[in-house]
What we know:
By secondary structure, the protein is an alpha+beta fold.
Amino acid sequence: MPRVCKEQIDAANRMTAIEFLRRYRPGSLVKSSARGEYQLAEHDSFKINGESSVWHWKSRDIGGKSALKYLIYVEGVPFVEAVQLLCEESPTYIPVQHEAVERERPQFKLPRKAPTNDRVTRYLLGRGISLPTIRYCIARKILYESAEYHNCVFLGKDPQGVPKYAALRGIYDYGKPFKREAPGSQKQYGFCIPPMQPGTTVAVFEAAIDAMAEMTLCGDAADKYRLSLGGVSSSGKEPLALQEFLTQLSFLALCAFVNRLGLEASSGYGVACKIVNFAMLIPSSLMQSMASFVSQNVGAGKKKRAKQSMFTGIGVGLVVGCLVFVLVMFKGDVVAGIFSTDASVIQNAFDYLKGFAPETIVTAILFSMIGYFNGNNKTVWVMIQGLVQTLLVRLPLAYYMSIQPNASLTKIGLAAPVATVTGIILKFIS
């Protein structure tokens, strides 16, 4: 049976996703509204940074950087075939010349200010933002109305108070809402609502309006820094680097363990991963929404409601998780048959799903707890729990199962729920 060696895997991983797309899928890569960002023509929720190659498929809640991971998770190519494909193309990583990128960056230019901020004020009031919060942002010169199109202009400034970033938001929602950045914006300088007095508390949001909404919910209290990240930054200095490294490490390790069992097992694992990604959609969505909801309520002093939301999320996740468990545990071969017609591949996918099946239940508990902890600003503990869960439990257990004389995909798949249960225990300990 065809196999791939470590050298082939290393060679395949040298090509970034953006390099692969530009070279072999140029027709599917289109420019998005954000500077330096692209999307797929067939999947507009797929975003990729043209400089760093960091990509995220929002609707599936998966992301990465390499062409190998892109082929497996986005195009559905089995692991071995993906490695062989990239090796055949003889990929060579071409590092980004940051100096050239900086030279090509357009000059930062802010839209001209309108005489008043009346239209922007009316728009934000209609979005539920309070008048004191709006006036607070205007007074600190981080929000104004553009003269030409009357857009909301949310400013990001450097430590010296010089504008370096501007997010534009149209006030008219006919058709697709207008959202973009001013030319030359530097994304490391996000929109930030400062507190009245210097402090150490920071609340992080995706969009500027989200930050203003939370301030409104807190009774217009300017008691902390409210930072909007505004999308994917390409500075390469963010904690995302650690997360991406660990994700890639665990992914490659699991693929290597499965690859020991042969090509058919590897192909079956690839099919199973597609089903796993679908099964994780609800828990992942609950985790993301939980963090935002909890942070808003904690900031508003409603800690009891924040904690209650965690139990509500667990309950909803368990209902869905039990249904998915029954499906993949007893009818996993039927589901796998959607992605392959090869009987051996289907059986191997089913074997992995039998071991993985309990994960659909326990992850509903863990992900809601993670969302709750993140919303309470306990992100460091969440990271530590993730490291222990992945590096000290799942990977060692999966490796141990793969080297046994009677090794099977079912036993390797069982490592996932065991690791998740460990994560739940750690959460209770904290």
